[in-house]
Amino acid sequence: MRSLFLYFFACVIILSCNDKQVADNTLFTLAQNTGIDFNNKVVDQKYENSFFYRNYYNGGGVAIADINNDGLCDVLFTSNMGENKLYLNKGGLTFEDITAASGMKQDSMWSAGATFADVDGDGWLDLYVCNAGHMKNGNRRNKLYINNHNLTFTESAAKYGLAIKAYTTHASFFDYDLDGDLDCFMINNSPLPLNNLGYENRRNLPDSAWPVPDILKGGGDHLFQNDNGYFKEVTLQAGIHGSLLSFGLGVSVGDINNDGYPDVYVANDSYERDYLYINQKNGSFKDEAESCFEQMSFSSMGADIADINNDGYSDIFTTDMLPDNDFRLKTLGAFDNIDLYNKRIQVGLYRQFMKNCLFVNNRSGEFIESANFSGVSASDWSWGALFFDADNDGLNDIFVCNGINHDVTNLDFMDFFANELIQNMALSGQKESVDSVLMHIPVTAVPNKMFKNNGNLSFSDAGNDWGFSTPSFSNGAAYADLDNDGDLDLVINNENQPAFVYENHSKKQNKHNYIGVTLKGISKNAFAIGSKIKVYKGNEIFTREVIPSRGFQSSVDYKQIIGVGKNESVDSMIIIWPNRTYTKVDKPALNKVFTIQQPVSSPVYHFDEPAVSTLLQEVPVSLDKHKEDDYIDFYYERNLPEQLSKEGPKIAAGDINGDGLDDMYIGGAKDQSGQLYVQKADGGFTKANASFFEKYKDLEDAAVLFFDADKDGDLDLYIGAGGNNAEPNQRATQHRLFKNDGKGNFTFDALAFSRNNMNIAVAVNYDYDGDGDEDLFVGGRSVPFNYGAAPQSYLFRNDGKGHFLDVTAELSTLIKYIGMVTGAVWADINGDADKELIITGQWMATRIFSYNKTYNKFEELRNTNLHNKEGWWQSIAAADVNGDGTTDLILGNIGENFYLRPDSVQPVKLWMHDFDNNGTAEQFLTRTIDSRDMPVFLKREITDQFPGLKKQNLKHKDYAVKSIQELFGKEVTGKSEVKLFNYCKSIVALNDGKGHFTIQALPLMAQLSSINAILVTDINADGKPDIIAGGNMFEFPPQFGRLDGSYGHALLNDGKGNFTWMEAKQSGVHVKGAIKDIKEIQSKQGRRIIVARNNDQPVVLQLKK
What we know:
Blueprint: H1 2-21, E1 28-30, E2 62-65, E3 74-77, E4 85-91, E5 94-97, H2 99-102, E6 110-117, E7 126-132, E8 143-147, E9 153-155, H3 157-160, E10 168-174, E11 183-188, E12 220-227, E13 230-233, E14 248-254, E15 263-268, E16 275-279, E17 285-287, H4 289-292, E18 296-297, E19 303-306, E20 315-318, H5 326-332, H6 338-346, E21 352-353, E22 357-361, E23 367-369, H7 371-374, E24 382-388, E25 397-402, H8 411-428, H9 434-438, E26 446-447, E27 449-455, E28 458-461, E29 471-472, E30 474-480, E31 489-494, E32 500-504, H10 506-509, E33 513-520, E34 532-537, E35 540-545, E36 549-550, E37 554-555, E38 560-565, E39 572-576, E40 582-586, E41 593-597, E42 616-618, E43 651-654, E44 663-666, E45 675-679, E46 685-687, H11 691-694, E47 700-707, E48 716-722, E49 736-740, E50 746-748, E51 759-766, E52 775-782, E53 794-798, E54 804-806, H12 808-811, H13 813-816, E55 820-827, E56 836-844, E57 847-852, E58 857-860, E59 871-872, E60 875-879, E61 888-892, E62 908-913, E63 922-929, E64 932-935, H14 939-945, H15 956-960, H16 964-968, ...
Parallel strand pairs: 18-21, 33-41
Antiparallel strand pairs: 1-32, 2-3, 3-4, 4-5, 6-7, 7-8, 8-9, 10-11, 11-12, 12-13, 14-15, 15-16, 16-17, 19-20, 20-22, 22-23, 24-25, 25-27, 26-29, 27-28, 30-31, 31-32, 33-38, 34-35, 34-39, 36-37, 39-40, 42-74, 43-44, 44-45, 45-46, 47-48, 48-49, 49-50, 51-52, 52-53, 53-54, 55-56, 56-57, 56-59, ...
């Protein structure tokens, strides 16, 4: 153990020297000789240790503020086992330790979070220190140090009602009821063992009512209202979850919904989901997390709230424990299996995934989680999360504290040493010493992370370039302009390592401009906590909220430094005060600090935005909910990247009874028949009493199509089966054709098609041979129980009577096994007046085939510029979007917010081979890392699937370094079929008229989820083809999370094929869920859009124009 620590510190010294060598080139440098010598030393002891107290390695926090009103901000560090330290800023980045004379007394407390706030409202900042730990002796009590105006403090927590004895992580002071004084929101983290919880949701059971020993109580969230200087608890009546279930690690306050009232986000450690308390403006809060977020971090540690895209709305970032390094992922990581994941949802613990989450405010009441797209989903075992503009370019960056004193989740330790120790203790009857256990746990320091905001929701890892290369065990951090030079410096509390003080050189290096603001409030909120500062420049809004408690156990300075980049002027600045009044400053000067006093009387700020007339409006129509069965693909095929049993519903639309109104058929799920809806004159629908469909309700409808199969002038119905759960030659997989009598009555024709054994994705009709009847292409989605194998797709020739002959092998061997098809369309691509067949799908490129009548063959078009874009394509549509008279393509892909984000240099590969010689081909998923094909799934999952790999990969660290070639041998992998996935974007492909396409990505917001359905139609009546699209995919293994960033998209066309994304409050398109199909129908009320969702009701939107 000692040698390991010596090695670690040697590395730190070497790396510190390296830091000095590159200091002149980095944005931040570690300041030397500052006078700050704090070190939060944490050592496991016999009776107090990390095995007894779960939060033993959580570390301490940092609080920064000007305690003596001299214009220089001072620094406090909290300590777990030593003394908290208070350092007075002497100027020039030098500090003096004034702890001994300050009146602060540690009393052997285990301190956690700290915040500076003017609790007594006298214009001088007081200090609140949160204490936890000491489970056995109970020596924990929060302390409030009242500022005596002479660099000393008097501990007065009891006097103010804040001498709380609990396991407090942090507290935030703000005026939640807008009565002019500061209230207190406190988060606690009980040491209650997680295995005591079972899988019960006791979110609303108060801490005091839990049937557990008192030693485990002292958890949950608690709200204290300031009642004339005394804080009384109002947790229950205010709607706060004061339950032991809440393992609070981060509390963030901000005006989430722009209504002028402060809301609260609580980051909860593993088990319980996070909370979003929306202020109800009546002294109470409502937890609206599940209506605002589609997913959350599983083990949320720190959190922060700020605006990352300068739209004037607050966004949220939470940290978790997902390593960004493949080796550490495979030696430390563990993901829920599908049963555990589903169980959590079942009991109300919601959708949680091991990843950092970046929640982007969609300005319609929800947040879109964009961490994968933004490049911030993984940062290792992370604690403090801070938004701040590190380089003053006008965009908030993200800083993340990293490191855990011991890798307690090391999989080899848990698999080998932990089990062995337990067995030895059971045999000997003696407990091993703490040291003998700890010596087997790896100790690995890692650098902190700094993500530079590039704009457009994109961040890049700037840690090394900006000077954050020193490995550490960092927990709390806070920023402030320590040297008053106009940029924000950074202070970090480390465990078993000296604290970091980073000097920022942005003002010197970048020459970026800034505005500094110090606010002076009125009444008992002298520092104007809760104020919002908005600096306007053109269409951009640079926003800050004065909320000191941020990140993890820390508190930042009150003075705001607002970077504005290269702008040489700004238009105006508005300060919205805590009482919802405002002060406006026109054309404020740059590169100076403004001290602004809140007026006693000022105009009220209007938070309500003007109503906008939307292009579409949801209309109430009674349609049946799609009901999925509970089949789980993962039970039958190991290590799938996705489930394919939940592909519906799809919509077929057309006039089936000749009354001039469009009707529709919506496909059913297994054990739910499809629904045939006949439109009425008033725009409503009558569900047809179609008993003939009931006979087939045990079959899943995956593809549906109205077309005239038998040349009798009415629309017949084709249904292709799916569900991914039928054995070969079963009834459940057969093609179905229902023939129409012209009045909307359908009869099944059992002789229409030959036998099928594939899951079907799509059917599209076209008379390709010009004989006067409609032929069909039917695309195979997959082979049941054999993911990755190429299914059979079909070219069916119509005999003129609605019977279809499979002529695929005759016409094109390429089409027969083209791949895992998801979409197809017939369209004239090369301008010869005949339509080509365009096919797209997963693990494949989009391919185009033209029928050669002379040779009776389909020939593939080459040089399309689509051949090298092998995606997880989900949908396709064809239209002339740029008005040049040629047909262009719109292709919906998986998007850029997926767990796997391959590109042409780093593709994801699917290997197909009988790897274990059992007579059945298996699939194996890899991603490219440093030009090596590395397994995506972890050792336990892979060795369960291939037991023969266990012997050569006994330890996770052995498996973690091996490529697929090293696992199975090059001879085996050389014989494997390999499918590529190297392109993620959804695109518009503009046709030059000869079948060569220029690629344009769809707008950013359309890339944050999959696009499963595309409708091209004129939304705004300008004669130009616009797009309505939708997506989301929820059927991945928990390791991959889910795609839920789409609420439907309305994309306006400028007539040249350039599309602009519209906000929901402008377009009216706001549809939650997994959208599977979108169709337009005509009614007497105008054009209507039908949106079909998996396991949910369809939505009907009315176009207003």
